[in-house]
Amino acid sequence: MKALVISGGGSKGAYAGGVAEYLIKEEGRNYDMFLGTSTGSLLVPHLAAGQIDKIHQVFTNVNQNDIFSINPFVMRKKDDREYVSIDFINTLWQFIKMKRTFGESKSLRRHIRKHFTYEEYNLIRATKDDVVVTVANLSKNGVEYKSIKDFSYDEFCDWIWISCNYIPFMSLVKKNGFEYGDGGLGCVVPIREAILRGATEVDAVILESENMAYNKVLGKNPFSLMINLFGHLLDQVERSDIIIGKLAAKNRDVKLNLFYTPSKLTENSLIFNKKLMTEWWQQGYYYAKKKCEEASSNELRVG
What we know:
InterPro entries: Acyl_Trfase/lysoPLipase, PNPLA_dom. The chain is α/β, with parallel strands linked by helices. The protein has helices at 13-26, 39-48, 52-59, 64-67, 88-96, 106-115, 118-127, 153-163, 191-196, 222-251, 274-302, and strands at residues 2-6, 33-37, 73-78, 81-86, 130-137, 142-147, 173-175, 178-182, 201-209, 255-261.
């Protein structure tokens, strides 16, 4: 059973889309199971439904208004570099309303329902073994994996949305008596879960460079510094997920193929820039092509 796993990574998900497009269209890899966290959760239902061109168009054209109903960020530009700053008015308004998050992402919930259709939901249930999204149960301090097989269309759309809610900048969601947030708060790359669900070969797209050693530019105000610190913590979770995934693959004799980004794509994955995301999609496509060609060449030499 073949599985495609896509990590969290915000706007960098465009790169994963390019990798997946090459693997599915050009390599002809037919996946039985799809697992995603955060931005990966947005991609995997469309990939499972075979809607690659559609998700390419949707993903590379997404903007802040498609994500945030209340946007806690202001994007500024200095010396050809974009950086994030706090929107004091929106954040103050959240405090006045006694909300626990700086922003709200109800626009993303509507965006998911608009582009992931009921017909595609039924097609996946009929033709694929599973599509799974990762969420963090903050009430129980644990990670949960939500399968398309276990929920109605409306419920599964909610779980996709919840998987993407980067707390405390996006919505904190109460469902079934528990409070949930971004799956990346517990598991950024669900490789091990794919193996536990029966995968014998896993292609995992990791939206970070293989060598994570680089000098990060820290924020110049408490708000942007907080974003940097959250990014640092998620990097550590991601490292652990990869190590655990490699061990699980080795113990169960599972073929594991890892697709990293060749370089650091962005300092802030909460910036959704059409030009950059279009470039990242193309980069992912050509990186996957190069990696697959190198693997084929090595196999020929060994043979």
